[in-house]
User: What shape does this take?
Amino acid sequence: MTTNRRTVLKKVGVAGALGALSGCVSVQEQGSDGSSGDGSGSGSSGPSGTATVWYSLSESEKDEREAAIRRFEDETGHSVDHSDISDMAKKTTSAIPAGQGPHTFEWAHDWVGDYSERGFLVDRSDQLNVSLDEFTEAAADAVQFEGNVYGLPHDAETVALIYNADVVDEAPETVAEMKSAMEEFHDPGSNQYGLGYPFADPYFLSGWLQAFDGYLFDPERDDELGVDNPATIRGAEFAVENFNPYMPNDPEYEPQSSAFAEGNAAFAFNGPWYLSTLNEKDVNYEVATLPTPEGGSPTPYTGVTMWYFAKGMEDGGDDAAAAFDFVEWYATNEDLMLRNAEEQGSIPVLESLVEGDELPDSVQGFSETVQQGVPMPSDPKMNKVWDPVKNALTKMFNGDAEPESAMKQAANEIRSNWG
Assistant: This one.
């Protein structure tokens, strides 16, 4: 099972979480109006169809998505049957093989390899009406696997440093500087913490696990698995030593993210999806790149959020054409991408916006952090890495195991699961 960044996040109203399966019920609520202007993606000139579209969003993101869908419907004459899915992995893996899946669904790129091998996706490389050159190179690469194109990208994501500007004067350049500020503010007895950080999630910890030339998984290396590599263990030890003492005592997403969102933490490590929550809470925050550890360089995993071409597109009818039009329209719509950046903290992957100067400062901070990182592997073997490492990180945080023994146990479990 892959780590569910956006699934886990819904636990605090940030992106969809381990709650009950909502099923495929079309969303009917009305949101705000869409932004003006034309997208550069494909519009339908043929018969109208009804696209089935799935996504998993926070409450703060839903209105904008519904407005964008209404705008697409108005501009093209197509209809969109859209559903917010609480557990996308469970729903897609059960519905798609049964022929009850969507035409397209939205998720990070790390499912591409696994889902293509399981027959859940279709290659549309020969039918594209847009060029992959319109996107950043990393984003264009992320939607491909073994030469096939399985979707189109629209946003990047990674974990950056966020600080409370009412508490911290400026972004620390080093972890040592950050630690000094955390020590000054940290006072658990007064419900004040130096840091809010979902420590149990390997995606969030990847920047430090890979900061000293360590790695979790790399199919290009002779030894693919790096979980028990000494450099990776060093990164785990570094994180435990420098961050754990300044955090709430539960490593899961909700208590960690809530601490900062409620104004009770000086710093947070979190992703762009988190900004909508901070904006709602009226937190005075700034976003910066990850601080540098002595002797290392932070190397977080980066992801690309994409619209997948699901197996439902195979029928080639009007409904599938409507879904294909929707994906191209959404992914290439500059006005929509800029609005999402301004209101949701999204990081566009359209080259025209990345190379321009219109993005908000907070999004620029995340965009610069993306440059520090490496893309999550989309190889199917990565799916069996996440959970054992999550268990190892939880044990470290709770003091139930030292980093070395926890990571070695996780590596043994992964290799056993790989067979």
Notes: The domain at 160-301+378-418 is CATH 3.40.190.10 (D-Maltodextrin-Binding Protein; domain 2).
